[in-house]
């Protein structure tokens, strides 16, 4: 029933047991998601506790995901302030929490943002900080994240999108030394004619 306002407030046992916590999104930043922890409510006790609870937000990072700038933009577009979400603790690094973040989509469906970002090609898989790399959970999650990234790679989505033939040809021509020399000559010739 306690409200956590800092990553250091969360007991080590919670992190070790990978406890799921509920929260409300405040905003999406370059560093991660700023989430207000929403504690379990007990009717009479909660109303008394609210008077003494401190205000603050937790910095939640998507565990196992290295976000591309397009991934941050997508999160800002998809997630709304005050939106409810669940975050499963995977690790704690300084004042940030490495988590699996789940968002409800409809009545019975929830989406793991970590996987969704990778499935759309808006990031790459990374080491899951805080989880011991020999643990069963680490490899289970890492396998799920790699599968999601592979889907984007096969569909050539997001950061895996290949340039079209005309884009590649244009890039090759613009970087060609002869073409650059001809462009410089043409601009010199234009300026000489205008004088």
Automatic annotation (TrEMBL):
Keywords per UniProt: Acetylation, Membrane, Transmembrane, Transmembrane helix
A single GO cellular-component term on record: extracellular space
Compartment annotation: Membrane
Matches recorded under InterPro entries: C3orf33-like, SNase_OB-fold_sf
Main subcellular location: membrane
Membrane topology: Single-pass membrane protein
Source species, domain of life: Eukaryota
The UniProt record lists the keyword Membrane: yes
PANTHER family recorded: PROTEIN C3ORF33
Protein name per the record: CC033 protein
Organism: Todus mexicanus
